Amino acid sequence: MAKKSKKQQQPGGTPATVALTAAGVSYTVHAYDHDPAHPSYGEEAAEAMGVSPERVFKTLVADVDGALTVAVVPVAGQLDLKALAAAVGGKRAAMADPALAERTTGYVRGGISPLGQRKKLPTVLDESASAHATICVSAGRRGLEVELSPDDLAKLTEAVVAPIGRA
Asked: Residues 22-54: pLDDT tens digits?
């Protein structure tokens, strides 16, 4: 796979796919027609791609003791805020203000990717990702997912892998 700089980005590319290409990581892009009326971005992605919701991960931004932190958990479950705080050595966690999450990551809600963010944030990947050869995460916009190995995702985001999801 040829490496491309941001200036050589193909039309329709996102900072997430540019980062993956630049890193030389093997990945697959899945595009689908986003329905703004769907109640869940993650569940919509799983349904549209025909992939189990346990393999599709949502990217959430939380505030842990005043520091924004990225949590990557299966769309089939929820984020355990106490577990997230513990994973990064914090005491309290709450969901971040959506506008702040968008400004900081450079992505819109429902399209926030753990990759290629405007500002690199501490990242925690739910340990359930390790049970799959590949997982899907947002590629940086609604209706676009990227499939890659959980090990590659953890390496590229320098993620802590911890049990932060719950059913």
From this structure: 999 999 999 999 988 888 888 999 999 999 999
CA distances, 28 to each of 36, 45, 92, 114, 166 (Å): 24, 14, 36, 16, 27
Q: How far is Cα 79 from Cα 111, in angstroms, rounded to an integer?
A: 17
Query: Which tokens in the block code for residue 142?
Result: 């609604």
Distance spanning both ends of the chain, measured CA to CA:
37
Query: Would you state the torsion angle of the CA atoms of residues 70, 133, 28, 142, taken in this order, to the nearest 10 degrees?
Result: -40
What residues have CB less than 8 Å from 36, skipping those under 6 apart? none
Report yes or no: 146 and 115 within 8 Å, Cβ to Cβ.
yes
Structure tokens, 136: 């899907």
Note the pLDDT tens digit of each residue in 82-97.
999 999 999 999 999 9
